[in-house]
Amino acid sequence: MTKNFLFFLIAFCNVIYSVSSVPEDPFRKIEEIITSNGYPFERHLVQTEDGYTIEIHRIPGGKGEKAYQAPANKPPVYVLNAFYQSSATWVSTGPRISLAYLLADNGFDVWLGNCRGNIFARNHTTYVDLSYGFWNFSWHEMGLYDMPAAIDFILEITGRSQLYYGCHSQGCTAAYVLGALKPEYNKKIRFSAHMGPIAFLGNMKGIGRILAPIIAKLGTPFLEKVGHFSMTGNALITIIFRQILLHPPWFAIVFSAIYTFSGPSKLSDNREAIENGLPYTITGASTKQIVHYAQGVLNPYTFRQYDYGSVQNLKIYNSVEPPSYPLEKVTMPIAFIEGTNDFCANKLDLDYLAKKLPNVVGRFVYPLNHLDFAYNRNIKQLGYNKIVELFLESEKRAS
Question: What average pLDDT does the segment 249-259 reach?
Answer without folding.
Answer: 82
